């Protein structure tokens, strides 16, 4: 928002911070418990950030809805209404994610098991921080807005001051506009207006609904067909960069040596007297028998 009071930059930053705290807490707990840290676990923070930011948007949207229904001075009632609207959605999302990753700990692959343990635990901490830390941040931000305090400096802004008496810089920073006209009360968010006045009526048109059903049917059919084409295995060639020397190596290996099958190697783990001719003959005889 352009308003220096209603701007929620710090609120959004604390939502991201909440996800970061969840990652730190979960990683610290798992390392303390002796769970191995593998390279794939490094991808977990991106998953936690996605879910945490999604929960943050749900909480903020529910808070904004509560502000329109309840008395803005009754913080307890506002927060209770927010949790009543948002907590169910956040809880179900967290439960399904945690269940999915903890089921993944049953796998026989140690790296996957570690990844699922770290990520599932991080989702639990993310839920706890969203329900506690971020809820407290919502209340503090609301009190700042009620006190007409600047979003960055938290200094009180004189909203009743005549803009014509102030400099353009002051009006831009503390009012939200460089014009010298008195500021108007903030209306509904443009994104909300778009979905309510334009997008909603568009998708509820009967021809659009029919088109969407047909598109979804085509998408579903393509998905089912794609599932039938899945094959087990992995092509190591696809793991390398396009300009890597590994790519032509695997191409040549497939072209010239694929008919021979995998290479079989024999390793002699003991000390051998290679100077002894009888020993050398014995090794050659063994190799011939294996061939």
UniProtKB/TrEMBL annotation:
Key words, A-Z: Glycoprotein, Membrane, Transmembrane, Transmembrane helix
InterPro entries linked to this entry: Patched_domain-protein, PTHD_SSD, SSD
Gene Ontology CC entries for this record: membrane
Domain SSD, residue spans: 1-140
Main location (coarse class): membrane
Pfam families: Patched
Localisation per UniProt entry: Membrane
Regions crossing the membrane: 9-38, 44-63, 83-109, 115-140, 207-226
Keyword Endoplasmic reticulum: no
Membrane topology note: Multi-pass membrane protein
PROSITE patterns in the cross-refs: SSD
UniProt similarity note: Belongs to the patched family.
Protein's UniProt name: PTHD3 protein
């Amino acid at each position: 928002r352009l308003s220096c009071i209603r701007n929620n930059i710090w609120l959004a930053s604390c939502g991201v911070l909440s996800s970061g705290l969840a990652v730190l807490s979960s990683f610290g707990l798992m390392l303390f418990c002796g769970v191995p840290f593998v390279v794939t676990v490094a991808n977990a923070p991106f998953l936690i950030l996605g879910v945490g930011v999604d929960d943050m948007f749900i909480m903020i949207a529910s808070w904004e809805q509560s502000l329109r229904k309840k008395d803005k001075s009754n913080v307890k009632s506002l927060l209770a209404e927010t949790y009543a609207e948002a907590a169910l959605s956040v809880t179900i999302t967290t439960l399904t994610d945690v269940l999915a990753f903890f089921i993944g700990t049953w796998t026989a692959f140690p790296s996957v098991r570690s990844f699922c343990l770290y990520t599932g635990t991080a989702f639990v901490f993310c839920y706890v921080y969203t329900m506690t830390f971020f809820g407290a941040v919502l209340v503090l931000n609301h009190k700042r807005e009620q006190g007409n305090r600047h979003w960055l400096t938290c200094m009180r802004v004189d909203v009743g001051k005549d803009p014509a008496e102030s400099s353009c810089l002051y009006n831009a920073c503390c009012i939200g506009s460089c014009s010298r006209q008195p500021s108007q009360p903030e209306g509904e968010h443009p994104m909300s207006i778009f979905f309510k006045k334009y997008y909603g009526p568009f998708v509820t048109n009967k021809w659009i609904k029919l088109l969407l059903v047909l598109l979804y049917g085509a998408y579903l059919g393509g998905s089912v067909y794609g599932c039938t084409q899945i094959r087990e295995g992995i092509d190591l060639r696809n793991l390398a960069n396009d300009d890597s020397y590994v790519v032509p190596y695997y191409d040549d290996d497939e072209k010239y040596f694929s008919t021979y099958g995998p290479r079989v190697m024999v390793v002699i783990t003991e000390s051998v007297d290679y100077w002894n001719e009888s020993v050398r003959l014995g090794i050659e005889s063994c190799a011939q028998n294996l061939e």
